Amino acid sequence: MANLRVLIADEDLDSRVSMKRAVARAELDLVGETGYGTEAVSLALEARPDVIFVAVEEPAARPLDTADGLANALPDTPIIIYSSAGDAESVRRGMIFGARDYLVKPVESSRIRDAIGVALNQEERRQMRRAGQLSAVHGRGSVITVAGAKGGIGKSVVSTNLAVALRQETGRSVVIIDADTQFGDVATMLDLLPDVTVGDLVKQRGDVDRSMVRQFVTTHAATGVDVLAASEEEDAWDGCSLDDVKRLIDLYAQVYDFVIVDTAGAMDAFVRACIETSTLSLVVSSGDVSAVRDTAAAVRRLDKWGVHPDRVRFVLNAGSHDQGINADEMAEAIGREVFWTVPHDRAVIDSVQVGQPLVLRGGKAKAAQSLTMLARRIGGKSGASDTQSTSEPFWRRVLPARGPAMRGTGDDDTGLEPVVETVDRGR
Predict the structure, then answer these.
(1) CB contact at 8 A, 162 and 118
(2) What mean pLDDT comes out for the span 371-376?
(3) CATH number for the 142-398 domain, one of 3.40.50.1240, 3.20.20.150, 3.40.50.300, 3.40.20.10?
(4) In Å, how far are 156, 208, 278, 398, 407 from 394, measured between CA atoms?
(5) In this structure, what DSSP letter does residue 43 have?
(6) pTM
(7) Are 343 and 366 in contact (CB under 8 A)?
(8) Cα–Cα distance between 180 and 175 in angstroms, integer?
(9) Which residues pair with 315 in a beta bridge?
């Protein structure tokens, strides 16, 4: 998928060079650079960028007039001002002249991507309002698909612990859907004996609406996490089209703040449907050479499917094995950064055997701490000392901050922003 295209309007050559470097580090495509006035407007009309950056320094009249002219010429293109002045009056003045965001120098690449995320989200909602579409949109929770290229990599360990930790850390409503079409283990890992399963839901899929989805879940009493359990029948998903799969997941997202989708150990059409309806997908691999090799193949398949790289994060689960490929080696092998590492911990196997998620067992288990921190990051809590949850807009989730430190092990040193938002339905 092509990178976003940006244009820079800045008459200070040194400032322009610095901004170009930041844009390059943010992996954006620079389609033009210009000074102010009619030159800037003409180039913008010709290049049609996705976002325009305008430098504003004193005297500010001309750059602000340029920002205003650009906003009038390309009303659907977000304009972001950057300046050495960060006082409230300067920011207010920039917004009056059409800016969607305001960055203070020195501008970092991560802030550029965040600002673009906010601006594109605002523009998307503005266009939806103009088209009268927002009134028909229900609040939608965050859908997180946990996938993997093969079985036996600890994928369900990650998904069940993530679901429980999200419930504990955020207090939000959470459902985990066992979408493993072969042998789903979620109920077993939570020590549940469900009376209803996904098979019952699939049989009634044509008649189910958002008011009915809770009828098919089993609540994990210790945590309040709801579980749509897998069926023991091998044909439970038969007759269910990929569009049906997407619709059913979306119905749960209209009711729950977080929907965790645990999939089979494969990257097939069914898993693709789950990924395509997700806010974020976590692709899990163990440190085994064969698992990493299969994950590299999964990367190629995701690219072929057209899944935006920023909607996917890669997780190295070393929870049950103390040997194997490390995060740096995995990143090199798959050509993508490893977002999170679950460290080796003998307690992982014990927790699976007794049907109690590791994050519930307390203590100082390294894997439990890591999985809890992962939930905090996904849930919008930036660190262990935070007491407030932070909601992030849609495009910030699509374009999160990038940087050299994209891995976490539970130590709060990655500098990552939350990658999803929650939906408050007044519960």
Answers:
(1) no
(2) 88
(3) 3.40.50.300
(4) 26, 27, 12, 7, 22
(5) H
(6) 0.60
(7) yes
(8) 15
(9) 284, 340
HEC secondary structure over 61-123: HHHHHHHHHHHHHCCCCCEEEEECCCCHHHHHHHHHCCCCEEEECCCCHHHHHHHHHHHHHHH
The pLDDT tens digits for 84-105 are 998 888 888 888 888 888 899 9
CB 295 within 8 A of CB 329: no
The pLDDT score that the predictor gives to residue 20 is 94
pLDDT at 391 over 60: no
Instruction: Name the residue among 153, 160, 151 with its Cα closest to residue 318.
Output: 153
Nearest to 229 by CA among 158, 267, 177: 177
Is there a shared CATH topology between the 5-134 domain and the 142-398 domain? Answer: yes
**Helix, strand, or coil (residue 334):** helix
pLDDT in tens, 180-216: 877 778 888 888 888 888 888 888 777 778 888 888 8
Domains of the chain, by residue range, sit at 5-134, 142-398
Both structure tokens of 223: 């945590």
Question: Pairing mode, if any, of strands 225-228 and 218-220?
Answer: antiparallel
Report the interhelical angle of 289-305 vs 269-276 (nearest 10°).
60
What is the pLDDT at residue 319?
59
Task: Concatenate the DSSP letters of all residues of 220-264 into one string.
Answer: ETTTTEEEEPPPSSTTTTTT--HHHHHHHHHHHHTT-SEEEEEEE
What is the residue-averaged pLDDT of the chain? Answer: 80
User: Alpha-carbon distance 189 to 185, whole Å?
Assistant: 6
Please identify, in words, the CATH class of the domain defined by 5-134: alpha beta
Q: Which of 94-108, 130-144, 279-293 has the lowest mean pLDDT?
A: 130-144
- The lowest-confidence range among 46-50, 129-133, 219-223 is 129-133
Q: Are 414 and 401 in contact (CB under 8 A)?
A: no
How far is 155 from 346, CA to CA, in rounded Å? Answer: 16
* pLDDT reported for residue 207: 78
Ramachandran assignment for 239, one of left (phi > 0), alpha (psi -120 to 50 degrees), beta (any other): left
Euclidean distance between CA atoms 312 and 147, whole angstroms = 10
Residues 6+ apart with CB under 8 A from 196: 215, 216, 217, 218, 229
**Biggest alpha carbon–alpha carbon distance for the chain:** 72
Nearest C-alpha neighbor of 143 from the set 397, 367, 366? 397
